[in-house]
Write a structure and sequence with these properties.
CATH architecture of one domain: 2-Layer Sandwich
Largest sheet: 4 strands, antiparallel
Shape: elongated
Strand order of the largest sheet: 2-3-1-4
Number of helices: 3
Radius of gyration: 22 Å
Helix content: 25-40%
CATH topology of one domain: Alpha-Beta Plaits
CATH class of one domain: Alpha Beta
Order of helices and strands: HEHEEHE
Oligomer: single chain
Structural class: alpha+beta
Distance between the termini: 48 Å
């Protein structure tokens, strides 16, 4: 039997490849959820009520995609460099275990939310 032409599929090859060992199964299952660290800076001009409303909004977002494992409100801190002519920001640090599509959606929401100066979403290696 001759080989198929370049660019054509081999009719003898299985199309639905299944994992063949436990490690490969665990790797596939790990992709269903991942651990992330989220740090965002809120404009302190929002006031205490505005800041707490944003913190609650982002907590709800994380819980929609998975589990919030920790949250630390670091409070007002001096920025390393001015952002939008501001020298201080309200820092919030969260850890979570969520679906892999969370970072893109969270980043989109951080960018369009009024009062968020900067955000950083980082995958945590185990």
């Amino acid at each position: 039997m001759s080989k198929p032409a370049f660019g054509q599929a081999d009719p003898c090859r299985r199309r639905d490849r299944r994992p063949n060992d436990q490690k490969e199964v665990q790797t596939i299952m790990a992709k269903l959820s991942a651990k992330y660290e989220v740090l965002y800076i809120i404009d302190p001009a929002q006031g205490e009520e505005g800041i707490q409303a944003l913190v609650e909004k982002f907590k709800a977002l994380v819980q929609e995609y998975g589990e919030l494992t920790g949250i630390e409100e670091w409070g007002n801190r001096k920025l390393a460099y001015p952002i939008n002519d501001l020298t201080e920001g309200y820092y919030v640090y969260m850890t979570c275990e969520v679906k892999p599509d969370f970072p893109a959606e969270a980043d989109r929401i951080f960018k369009i939310t009024e009062g968020v100066l900067r955000s950083l979403i980082t995958a945590v290696e185990e």
